[in-house]
Amino acid sequence: MSFLTAFFYDKCMKATEDACLIEWRRGLLKNVEGKVLEIGAGTGASLELYPDSSKLQLSLSEPDKNMRVQLEEKIRSKNLTQISVLSCSSEKIDSDDETFDFVFASLVCCTVNDVEASLKEIKRVLKPNGSFIFLEHVASECGSDRRKWQNRLNPFWRKLAGNCHLNRETESYIEDAGFTFHEIKHESMRTAMALVRPTIRGIAKKS
Ligand SMILES: C[S@@+](CC[C@H](N)C(=O)[O-])C[C@H]1O[C@@H](n2cnc3c(N)ncnc32)[C@H](O)[C@@H]1O
Predict the structure, then answer these.
(1) Whose CA is nearest to atom 3 of ligand 1?
(2) Is the beta carbon of 131 within 6 A of some atom in ligand 1?
(3) I need a surface site. Which of 14, 40, 83, 146 has the fewest CB within 10 A?
(4) Domain encompassing residue 171
């Protein structure tokens, strides 16, 4: 992401964060504990929504330098000392096998270069009973008008929005990677642009 995109990211997302994302993130993260990795943590939109618990050991990974600078600044300004920041991509997570109790991704699977490799890596670093928590905007139903527009505009949108894909079938990718859905909700991302409104969020188990 360019410096400017990263700089204005929080401002652009504020209305949608206030309308629904903060509530969704909080709900998804309320029971996490142990070793937790957030991939593509961006500017740290979820940072304050993790439980304030001594049982939590949080690692945040963000490969984009401009986003990571903001993330580190937010961590510093909030005096959060127990958090480690990594710069690895989700396709090659800098961690041993079976390390984490939870891996969290929000609005990331749409953007990664290789979603299959990323999910394979997430599975690798999760403990045997670990959970992948996701919140993603996704492809609309096949054949719908919205899906037709998502397909048409995807090549342009990817260039404008840091490789974000409008039409990723992330639910199928998660299933195909061998995860089992423990819970999944489909809901419209209020106030967002129509083409990115369809979302999924929930928890998928490794085993
Ligand atoms: C739309 S932003 C979402 C940021 C944050 N997760 C949030 O919910 O606000 C997508 C993020 O994914 C990151 N990203 C892009 N490619 C990635 C990859 N291959 N692995 C991990 N993160 C990636 C981007 O740098 C960016 O910070």
Answers:
(1) 107
(2) no
(3) 14
(4) 3-205
pTM flag (> 0.90): yes
Least-confidence region, from 37-46, 66-75, 76-85, 139-148: 76-85
Binding site membership of 17 for ligand 1 (Cβ less than 6 Å): no
- In which residue are the tokens 């903001």 written? 70
CA 90 – ligand 1 centroid, Å: 9
- pLDDT at position 78, please? 84
Pocket test for ligand 1, best of 59, 108, 114 (most atoms within 8 A of CB): 108
- The reply to whether ligand 1 has any atom less than 6 angstroms from the CB of 44 is no
Domain count, the chain: 1
Per-residue confidence (pLDDT) for residue 53, from 0 to 100: 82
CATH number at residue 55: 3.40.50.150
**Contact assessment for residue 167 and residue 110, using Cβ atoms and an 8 Å cutoff:** no
> Cα of 40 to ligand 1 centre, how many Å?
4
- Residue reference for tokens 């409104």: 197
Average pLDDT over residues 177-181: 98
- Average pLDDT, rounded, for the chain: 96
Q: Is 21 in the pocket of ligand 1 (CB under 6 A)?
A: no
pLDDT per position as a tens digit, 62-79: 999 999 999 999 999 987
106 lines ligand 1 (CB under 6 A): yes
Given a cut of 80, whether residue 31 has pLDDT beyond it is: yes
Range list of H helices, 37-195: 65-77, 115-125, 145-160, 170-176
Q: CA separation (Å) from 85 to 39, 75, 143?
A: 10, 10, 41
